[in-house]
Every structure is written in C-alpha cells, then in structure tokens.
Amino acid sequence: MDGSDRLRLLERAVTASTNSISITDPSQPDSPLVYVNPAFERTTGYPAEEVLGRNCRFLQGEDRDQTGLGELRAAVREGRHCTVVLRNYRKDETLFYNELSVYPVRDENDRVTNFVGVQNDITERLRTEEALREIRRAERRRIARDLHDIVIQDLSGALQSLRLIHLQFKSSGAELDFTEELEALGRASSGLRSAVYDLRHEKERPFVESVESLVELNRQATPEREVRLVVEEKFPGGLSGGESVELLRVLQEALTNARRHSRARNVEVRLRTEDGDIFVEVSDDGRGFDIASVRAGVGLSAMRERAEGLGGTFAVYGRPGEGTRVVVSIPPENDTPAPRRL
Ligand SMILES: Cc1cc2nc3c(=O)[nH]c(=O)nc-3n(C[C@H](O)[C@H](O)[C@H](O)COP(=O)(O)O)c2cc1C
C-alpha cells in the first residue's frame, strides 16, 4: 500500500468511526479545532463548519467550574494523554456527559504538533447507574421497613410474653429458667434494630464506619468469639456508595459463614491496600474446609459476582483444620465525578 492509499484508508476509518474524534492545532492561537469527524457532528449537533477554527471549550457553555478541567489543562500543557469526564452541551443546549480522552501527536523531533480527542457520550451509562442506585436505595428502604414494622414488632411482642411467662413460672417456684433464651432474644432484637439503622443510613456513612458497625453486630451475635477489625493506615476513608454497599454485602456474607460454619475462636476483618488496590479480608482460625467439596449454599458465588461486578477479584483460601481466609480486592476508584441527577 503506498502513502496516499494508506492516508485514504485512515481517513475513511476516522470518518466511519462511531466514536467522535477531533484534532486540534496547538501551534495556532487558542488551540483551535482543525478536524472533527461526522460522529462529532452527530453527538454535539454542530456541523463541522461551525466549529473548525474555535477552541473546543465552547461545548462547556457557561458551565466552566468542572473538576476534570484542571487535569485536562495540565495534560495539554505537559503534552501527555489524559481521560476526563466533562459536562458538555449540544447545539440544542441539552446536557451530555463527555468522557474525553486526549492524546498528543508528535513529529520526528518529538515536538507535539497536534492533539487528538476521542469523545464518548456516557450520559446513558450514568443515567442507568443512577437508576440502579435508586433501585438499591428503594430496596434497602423496603427491607428496613419490613424488618422494622413486622419482624421487630413480632420479636418484641414474643419477648414481652416470654418475660411474663418467665416471671409467672419463677413466682410459682417451677424449675424452668429462660434467662439465656431471653438474653439471646434481647440480643437478636437489638442487633436487628442496629441492622435497620444501618440499612437506612448505609449510603451516607463512610465505608470504614459501616464495617465497624457490622463487626460490632457480629460481636454481639457471638460473644464467645473474638472478632477483630484491623484498618491499615493507607486504607481510603471513603469509597463510592456503590462500592461500599457491595463490599459490605461480601463482608456480611463472609462473617455469617464464619459464624455459622467455622467454629473459630478468632475472626479478623482486615482492610488494607496494596499497589493502590483495595483489599477486604476475613480470616478465621476455625476448622476450615475443603474448597473442592464446599456446598453451594455458603454464598461463595454471590460474593464472587459482587467482587467481579466491581472489576475486582475474589478468593477463598483454606484447608480442613487450618482456618479460612476470604479475600476481595478491587482496583482503586477512578476519578469519574459523581453524576448529577439527570
Ligand atoms: C484534542 C482536544 C479535544 C477536546 N475536546 C473537548 C470537548 O469535546 N469538550 C470540551 O469541553 N473540551 C474539550 N477540549 C478541552 C478544551 O479545548 C480546553 O483544553 C479545556 O477547556 C481547558 O482549557 P481552558 O481552561 O483554556 O478552557 C479538548 C481539548 C483537546 C486538546
């Protein structure tokens, strides 16, 4: 293929691309656009002739106070690649979320001659994520309401009757003692109340605080077991609402398994980071198990799905008699800004 054939092929490829592509010339005053492909025209609603010769910032309209812009300016200044999410406005003034990647193009002397921008309209994706978050919030509210209005009410009623019966038996001198059962029911009732509280406040609370209260609930449920929480120094204070909820579910499942199946004396929850990745681990010194013969009922596949849903990994280590360790790791959060309500 000779030079002109190659050029024609490249031009056809860029023209046919469904991603919108733009090219700027930083050697001209205010780095104007010198090329936009048809997908750019479709996404923004601006025909090429109206945008060539202008700096692409016009897509931001008056909305200039955006976190991604600082990173974008620095990348352009230093001649390096970056990806940011910006709020942009089409010609008809409707908002769209633009995931913009900018790449420098260098000549044979390593001088930056142009920048190529690849724009990806992620409005639909953010809208779907927001809808999913709203569904999760509604589901948590419903579970909290059912637990509160039905389960806790029934439990409190039964607890009161049992207390009364207990008193009557005692005063009649019968040899029946419900003290332990009453205490266990009392613990279950207060545990449920805290769980309802957590369900209602899960999103607003920092992840580490939610883990603390989850660990505390597990301590109350099994006072005979030592449940330790270790938060290593570099562990991030806040995770996104979605990540936080999913990781809490995995932790809850792992702690329930430890409680029901491990017969451990000690359980440790450890939150740590390694090379930027976030690690959440639950280990115990219980009887362990043979992973190959483990029953499906212990929620391993659900935990794996949650971890993988966050782009992370899930692993279980253990052998009969040697305790169990459950490890979830997820990559660091990207810097996509929290979407506004669309
Ligand atoms: C190749 C390239 C493509 C760009 N595409 C867009 C875009 O689609 N939308 C946008 O708001 N800004 C875009 N920009 C960013 C603006 O041109 C500008 O760099 C940014 O607003 C920060 O600079 P300023 O503070 O001078 O406005 C692009 C920049 C480059 C280099």
Task: Characterize this entry briefly.
The protein has 342 residues and is α+β, with helices and mostly antiparallel strands.
Structure, described:
The chain is of the alpha+beta class. It has three domains: 3-121, Beta-Lactamase; 123-201; 223-342, Heat Shock Protein 90 (2-Layer Sandwich). The chain is built from nine helices and ten strands. It has a five-stranded antiparallel beta sheet, with helices on both faces. Strand 3 (82-89) and strand 4 (95-106) form a beta hairpin. Helix 5 (123-171) packs antiparallel against helix 6, helix 6 packs antiparallel against helix 7 and helix 7 (207-221) runs parallel beside helix 8 (241-262). The radius of gyration is 29 Å and the shape is elongated. The two termini are 48 Å apart. Bound molecules: flavin mononucleotide (FMN). Flavin mononucleotide (FMN) binds next to strand 1, helix 4, strand 3, strand 4 and strand 5.
